């Protein structure tokens, strides 16, 4: 399966869309928003550019996309006013895979411009926004073009399912599991780790070329606590998805062979794996690396935890699952998923963790 052609968050504003089901990502990003603002302010004070280039990589669509840009804009406006140095222009680039719902972003821009202009009667800097479709695992922009790069909940998605998890007949070695699980052979976890190394290294090297000296990046993505790939964190949610598929196999909704050939292009790295790739790349200084988690009581919704997780995962995985199995299984699959998550949480907490990184071009 060609990830670049098939993978995208569910577009539009319908019931199962990412726009309607990305509140968990928003709450998590808000938890580290102070780090983003502090980094942006420090960047501006040390570089004071007249034209500032900002890229949001893996921007998706929906309210989260423009919310962070507003926060960055207001932070820069506030600090520039304090030091009496006014930027003449902002350049904002929204990047995601070509199948992303960019139209939803573009439709929201006139209202967004109006929102930014509020309370800015005494001069308003020029702000130029555009879409940049393409994979961020490779070059997107010219050399020394960007001052700030933001990426939220995108870098745990690999450029592809690791080819080394398939045998010479292109059959998956990871039967019955959609990600690394207890029964996965060692070659499977090694293949996923090597794909992460290849992708993250390419990401860092590409951004290093595109950032000005002193430019910053804030990256937020899912990870794991220690060396073990299987834990009761992010990998456990994939375990529950595998179980949800297995129920459909028992019900005759899908073939076992079809399930065995479905694997996700995901990887949850450890702190040490992240640090090692940054060290090997060499031109970016890791200024901050923090782990954080969302307590299920912080979700703030009347729905069960299982339902909240289920609609969020569906909005992300729907495109890939539909491509492989067809759309007809989606409702039953995620009904099973929500029920199983609630059953597991009643037994013991599930504690997925995220990392936030701050990097500086040296």
Automatic annotation (TrEMBL):
Transmembrane segment boundaries: none
An annotated GO BP: methylation
GO molecular function terms attached to this record: metal ion binding; methyl jasmonate methylesterase activity
UniProt entry keywords in alphabetical sequence: Magnesium, Metal-binding, Methyltransferase, Transferase
SUPFAM superfamilies noted in UniProt: S-adenosyl-L-methionine-dependent methyltransferases
Stretch forming the signal peptide: none
Known EC number: 2.1.1.141
Protein name: Jasmonate O-methyltransferase
Organism: Cajanus cajan
């Amino acid at each position: 399966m060609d990830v670049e052609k098939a993978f995208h968050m569910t577009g539009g504003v319908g019931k199962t869309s990412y726009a309607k089901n990305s509140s968990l990502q928003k709450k998590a990003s808000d938890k580290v928003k102070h780090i983003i603002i502090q980094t942006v302010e420090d960047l501006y004070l040390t570089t004071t550019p007249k034209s500032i280039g900002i890229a949001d990589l893996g921007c998706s669509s929906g309210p989260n996309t423009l919310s962070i840009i507003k926060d960055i804009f207001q932070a820069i406006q506030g600090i520039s006013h304090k030091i009496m140095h006014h930027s003449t222009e902002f350049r904002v680039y929204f990047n995601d895979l070509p199948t992303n719902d960019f139209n939803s972003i573009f439709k929201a821009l006139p209202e967004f411009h109006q929102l930014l202009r509020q309370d800015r009667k005494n001069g308003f800097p020029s702000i130029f926004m555009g879409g940049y479709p393409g994979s961020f695992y490779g070059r997107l922009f010219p050399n020394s073009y960007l001052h700030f790069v933001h990426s939220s909940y995108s870098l745990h998605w690999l450029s592809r399912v690791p080819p080394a998890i398939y045998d010479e007949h292109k059959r998956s070695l990871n039967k019955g599991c959609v990600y690394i699980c207890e029964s996965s052979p060692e070659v499977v976890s090694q293949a996923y780790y090597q794909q992460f190394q290849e992708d993250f290294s390419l990401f860092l090297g590409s951004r290093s070329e595109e950032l000005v000296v002193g430019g910053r990046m804030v990256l937020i993505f899912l990870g794991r606590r220690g060396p073990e790939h299987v834990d009761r964190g992010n990998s456990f949610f994939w375990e529950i998805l595998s179980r949800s598929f297995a129920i459909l196999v028992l019900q005759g909704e899908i073939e076992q062979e079809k399930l065995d050939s479905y694997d996700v292009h995901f990887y949850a790295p450890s702190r040490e794996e992240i640090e090692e790739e940054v060290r090997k790349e060499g031109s970016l200084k890791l200024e901050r690396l923090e782990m954080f988690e969302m307590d299920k009581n912080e979700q703030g919704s009347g729905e069960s935890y299982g339902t909240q997780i289920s609609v969020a995962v569906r909005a992300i995985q729907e495109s890939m699952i539909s491509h492989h199995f067809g759309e007809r299984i989606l409702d039953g699959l995620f009904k099973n998923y929500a029920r199983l998550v609630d059953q597991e949480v009643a037994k013991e907490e599930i504690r997925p963790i995220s990392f936030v990184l701050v990097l500086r071009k040296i």
